[in-house]
What we know:
Radius of gyration: 10 Å
Number of strands: 0
Shape: flat
Largest sheet: none
Number of helices: 3
Order of helices and strands: HHH
Amino acid sequence: xxxxxRLFEARKKKGxxxxxxxxxxxxxxxxxxxxxxxxxxxLFSCK
Length: 47
């Protein structure tokens, strides 16, 4: 399973929004969305 999918599922399981997670990580909500869609950093590549 790709990092983005795992991040999405973990966030939903905790019942928090992208904005809430972003605040905890000191970033912005759209950044979380990009990670969830695997659009950020190929360090977490799903090959």
